[in-house]
Specification:
313 residues; mainly alpha; 10 helices; 57% helix
Length: 313
């Protein structure tokens, strides 16, 4: 008699259809993205990306404006010199030097502004004004008193506006850096407090010790056995703020799955409740997880002891 072997057919799991597998992967990605978007560190990343992008653009336009002002300063200083004269080449380095000093001073100001340190020194203000005035004069004079030809209104306006634009552009850059730094430091990340070790299991009560009876004379009655006092029962190490109304059948805190909260955030909420020495509130939940007020209130209700308000939730 032959028997049919159905071992492979019974133990082999059924393969899911391809659309189901693709949709499951997309749902997994969506859940991971949702958990990441709830993290406060994402705001820090976005602020840093904005700071880098804006700073690069400002540097580009500042360099273009500095090239234009450098030609005006070189024309003013070189005069009738020719490239055969070394001074003619040295005049090209005057304006980059002035702009570099200006940017260095403004970067230092940005660091002080980010730390809320007031700069009340007149020397700093006069230094910036001197750098701006020097660049402005050396660009405007050649346009007003050209060596060849007449005055060009367009060149005069350009040599007047570009130095001022370069100055304000250089002053805005440190302010952008300082404000982005302040915004980044204003974001508080939730602290991951270590989970306390579980309390040791209660020790078993020792068995009563019986003293053997002493053999005495027939006329003397034997003493009754003396039993050692039983050890006091050890109280279970269960926080008194958990009540039967906030626990499920397994003895764990009330489940939060019905509120649509990710598992990682549920662990964070339970850790917050365990660390507090008082009933948790909706404000505590919002500060730790950034949940909406309505959901935070429901979470606080589930974790509120039954005796907190005098009635059972």
């Amino acid at each position: 008699m032959t028997t049919v072997n159905n071992h492979d057919s019974t133990e082999r799991p059924a393969k899911q259809p391809r659309p189901v597998r693709k949709l499951s992967k997309r749902l997994d990605v969506a859940r991971q993205l949702h958990d990441l978007e709830q993290d406060s560190a994402l705001d820090i990343v976005e602020i840093e990306r904005l700071r880098v992008s804006v700073t690069r653009s400002l540097w580009l336009f500042l360099a273009i404006g500095s090239v234009f002002t450098t030609t005006g300063v070189q024309d003013f200083l070189a005069g009738h010199l020719t490239p055969a004269d070394p001074v003619w080449w040295g005049c090209w380095g005057v304006e980059p030097c002035l702009v570099g000093i200006l940017i260095t001073v403004l970067r230092w100001e940005a660091a002080m502004i980010a730390r809320e340190i007031e700069i009340d020194s007149k020397a700093v203000d006069w230094l910036k004004r001197f750098l701006l005035g020097s660049t402005l004069v050396m660009n405007v004079v050649p346009a007003i008193l050209p060596r060849e030809g007449g005055i060009s209104a367009g060149m005069l306006a350009a040599h007047f506006m570009v130095p001022i634009l370069v100055f304000f552009l250089a002053e805005v850059m440190p302010i952008v850096q300082a404000r982005c730094t302040q915004a980044r430091r204003a974001i508080t990340l939730p602290t991951n407090t270590p989970t306390p070790d579980p309390a040791p299991a209660p020790a078993a009560a020792p068995a009563p010790v019986t003293v053997p009876a002493v053999v005495a004379e027939p006329t003397t009655p034997a003493p009754a056995p003396i039993a050692a006092p039983a050890a006091a029962p050890v109280a279970a190490s269960i926080p008194d703020r958990w009540t039967d109304s906030t626990r499920d059948t397994t003895g764990e805190p009330a489940a939060l799955d019905g509120l649509g909260i990710p598992s990682g955030m549920q662990t964070q909420i339970r850790r917050l409740v365990a660390d507090l020495d008082r009933p948790v509130t909706a404000v505590d939940i919002q500060q730790a997880t950034r949940l909406p007020a309505s959901i935070a209130s429901k979470v606080a209700d589930r974790f509120t002891p039954a005796t907190a308000n005098g009635y059972t939730h």
